[in-house]
Write the structure tokens for this entry.
Amino acid sequence: MVLHTRTTPAERRRAFREALASGRLLRMPGAVNPYSARLIQDAGFDAVYLSGAVLAADLGLPDIGLTTSAEVAARAQQTARVTDLPVLVDADTGFGEPLNAARTVQLFEDAGLAGLHLEDQVNPKRCGHLDGKTLAPREEMVRRVRAAADARRDPDFLLMARTDARSVEGLGAAIDRAKAYVDAGADAVFPEALADEAEFEAFRKAVDVPLLANMTEFGKSPLLSTRTLEELGYNIALYPVTLFRLAMGAVEDGLRVLAAEGTQEPLLDRMQTRSRLYEVLGYEGYAAFDSAVHDFTLPPDA
């Protein structure tokens, strides 16, 4: 079928769990929109990410907790519909109190996602690589994680806890928080804004669940290669805003050329062609399906 994925959400969740348990590094770019999720799949990556920062920027908003759970769930559902890769979503702080975090889990399960991550900032949150973050008390985040874990209906739905404690309380506190979140029901941990390779190594040695390495550009962490992350024992290499930054950089360049030249002719060799667009969208499959629906004759009466 061309109208939806070939796999079910349950199958994608199980596949995500199995891939995390395999010990290999999963490469996870952040999608700009559903179409780019299809491109991520076609390029041979392992999973798709939905960044809260990208969704907020796409709406013309800063990443300070202004988006709602309904907005994120809607984009998540649109994205999960078009890719057979597992999709992990940024759920910020859970969009409220522990009960809100519980509801968020079920909204995102219904959207077809493979998992989400919750962070231990207070609301309104800040981008993880900005200064001035305020952490929720550890006990409050533990309640948030426990509520989210208790709300799951599909045990394969991955619950990841993100800690922003490194840049506020130090590496040791971040590790202690991560262990508490695992005890509360988190299946994996996202240590945000680690300062160097030694800190990535220390976190891996201390925390015995799958770990995500955030390879965001222009942030506090070094951009480690997949080979280095594999050697360190990490499970996910995340590129949350890479495609958005590439796309918006190309848009700005294109606008400058169009304004200066009065024509898009010099830009043609930078564009995705019409034929490639149609190939990605599966136009031929839609046409064949439509023909099969409309071009038929009823059998004669028996």
